[in-house]
Design goal:
Blueprint: H1 3-13, H2 20-63, H3 68-122
Helix pairs in contact: 2-3
Length: 123
């Protein structure tokens, strides 16, 4: 858990009156936290793609160079770069799905806690 998540849990565990403005601020903070995580994930995704493409281009040049040994090296580099692209796409899909699910769970926890605090103040 990040520091932000610990801070959020501390705020939600306090027995205070329901404040709609505070609830909106907390919702925005949860959304911003996951936007930052997704942005970092996307940056790594594109960096990895650029590196893989940088390997594919020289590999293609080696394949068509005419020398048999260089062509074999080119095929190995090309297949390796394509495998790396497939792996990064799968990794991105898994991590992105996990982040989306975690974000929705945090929103539901926040909504439930705020609803409970609203019920306890009205009772």
């Amino acid at each position: 858990m990040s520091d932000f998540e610990h801070e959020l849990l501390d705020i939600l565990e306090q027995d205070t009156k329901f404040d709609p403005a505070r609830a909106q601020v907390l919702r925005l903070q949860v959304g911003d936290e996951y936007k930052r995580k997704k942005r970092r994930l996307l940056i790594w995704y594109w960096v990895y793609h650029v590196v893989a493409i940088a390997i594919v281009i020289p590999a293609m040049i080696q394949i068509y160079s005419g020398n048999e040994l260089q062509a074999i090296r080119g095929y190995v580099g090309f297949i390796g770069a394509l495998a790396a692209l497939i792996i990064i796409k799968l990794w991105y899909w898994i991590v992105h799905s996990r982040l989306e699910i975690m974000r929705e769970i945090k929103r539901l926890e926040l909504r439930w806690t705020l609803a409970q605090s609203e019920k306890s103040t009205s009772a």
